[in-house]
Amino acid sequence: MRQHVRIPLADGSALAATVALPEGTPPVTGWPGVVVVHEIYGVEPDMLDVVDLFAEHGYAAVLPDLYSHGTRAGCLARAMHQLATGKPGRPAADIDATRRWLAGREDVDGGRLGVIGFCMGGGFALAYAASAPPGVRAASVNYGVVPRDQEELRSVCPVVGSYGGRDQGFRSHGTRLQEHMRALGIEHDVEIYPTAGHSFMTDGHHPTAKLALFPLRHGLVRPAADDAWQRTFAFFDKHVANHESRQASTTDRTPVSLTRDSLPAQRPCDGGDDRGREDPARQDESVGEPLPRAGRVESAFLAEIDHG
Prior knowledge:
The chain is α/β, with parallel strands linked by helices and 308 residues long. The chain has one domain (2-279, 286-304): Alpha/Beta hydrolase fold, catalytic domain (Rossmann fold), CATH 3.40.50.1820. It contains 9 helices and 8 strands. It has helices at residues 45-56, 72-85, 89-103, 120-129, 171-184, 207-212, 222-241, 280-286, 294-304; strands spanning 2-8, 14-20, 31-37, 60-64, 108-118, 136-142, 159-164, 188-193. The protein has an 8-stranded mixed sheet, with helices on both faces. The longest helix has 20 residues, at 222-241.
């Protein structure tokens, strides 16, 4: 069952997120957990389906809305710039705040965590995992950007990744990820599916993207998706769920409330003052809305993807 939550941030603002938990009583040590990082389109139904899928497989899963700091267009512009420069400052901070929140739950084992990302989120997930965050045992990178410099990934945890061979924008990143992992001696399972394009693992509905980003060959490819998910869960079960965790100290674990009362409003992406700050209730209602002016967004995305 999904629940909408607010994750308090260090600057006094809060991050909108969706969490899903496995059914039943959690194990004594807590459930393994996973942070899901969404595609460029934001918190769409197919990304929420990923949260549900992990919960069905026994993981506590949380999906932060990286666009919930201000206007969606403004947040997207900043995220795209950070993706292009390879310096995902605010997204990395938001992902880390989400990991801390998840690890702090009494029903989650903070020493058995994973991170998974798709498209833009795949690049952010990989960059975040390379910072060696506490408790993160595996990362899943799906059609995401991979840096040219393999040294940027030297500290990354084991990686499972899936790319589409028909995806002219990202298939080279899949090959690059394979080469980097081999050179660094990092355990990995990275597959490039010849019949698949971009966003092939989830059933998203992005008709404009299929036209504006035709070289990426958007769309679900069920046989490839089924195999990719099987590999992903096998990899996470090995490295995350079955990891013998040295449980995080109880002094690091804080009570978690699923209510949104008394949490502060969120600040705009540009870090400015309160002018233009959106009402939290309206932000909740906007989760899952399509991004404005999609054609312009997707054209900018296509121009940025091979930044490295």
